[in-house]
Amino acid sequence: YSKLDIPKRTKGEIGIELCIDALIDDHVDYVTECQDCGIKSYLFEAVWNKQKKLPKEIVRIRSWSEIDKYF
């Protein structure tokens, strides 16, 4: 096994490259980063992120059926 020389990219950078419209994730940093890149972001609520304060543009969702109302 040899270490590959692959540049690290953020989810925001990858999202821009792939022209995604939205991100659904349970990690506050990832949704914030993507929102800052202009990608509509949804935080899937989990035990580890319930207490985190979110920017007003990021929507907190609690179930997959709840996401339907946003698309």
Q: What can you tell me about this protein's structure?
A:
The structure is a single chain. Helices cover 30% and strands 17% of the residues. It has three helices and three strands. The chain has helices at residues 11-18, 28-36, 64-67, and strands at 22-25, 40-44, 59-61. Strands 1-2-3 form a three-stranded parallel β-sheet. Helix 2 (28-36) links the parallel strand 1 and strand 2 (40-44).
Instruction: Kindly report how far apart the N and C termini lie.
Output: 43 Å
Low-pLDDT runs of 5+ residues are: none
Structure annotation, total helices? 3
Quaternary structure type: single chain
Please report which band the strand proportion falls in: under 5%, 5-15%, 15-25%, 25-35%, 35-45% or over 45%. Answer: 15-25%
**Rg calc:** 14 Å
Gross morphology: globular
Average of pLDDT? 90
Q: Main beta sheet, described?
A: 3 strands, parallel
Structural class: alpha/beta
How do the strands line up in the largest sheet? 1-2-3
Give helix and strand order, one letter per element, not per position.
HEHEEH
Number of strands: 3
Helix content: 25-40%
Please give a quick description of this structure.
The protein is of the alpha/beta class. About 30% of the residues lie in helices and about 15% in strands. It has helices at about 10-20, 30-35, 65; strands spanning about 20-25, 40-45, 60.
